[in-house]
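Intended use. Records like the one below are meant for learning the mapping from a protein sequence to its folded structure. Do not use them to infer anything beyond what is encoded.
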Amino acid sequence: MRYLGIDYGTKRVGVAISDEGGTLAFPYAILDNGKGLVGEIKNICAHESVGAIVVGESLDYKGKPNPIMTKTNTFIKEIKEIINIPIILEREFLTTQQARFFQTERKRVDDSAAAIILQSYLDRKGNKPIPEKTLTK
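Structure written out for the chain above:
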């Protein structure tokens, strides 16, 4: 199964995609966060035969939601209204800074941050089910 990873941001949204086997994550696109965002996500899911979406869950040092999580949750609700596939939350912490560390030549690394989030999920998942925060309708 192919997975889509999302690093949600107020200006840009990083998108990553896994291989068919769901073992490796690759940067895919950086999308503007605007009115057509959910439609673009839907098109990517259809074009790439995505079976589940993994969204970065932004928490602070104490495990409490960061301010961006309110907007991320609204975004997730919008996705669930239009796309009928599972959405999984994966804890993310400083993924954009990680991506910048490894890609010093690139100005925007949102897609690489999404790949880090997605790879984290894929590594934990392995080939066996794990407890996850899967959001259903």
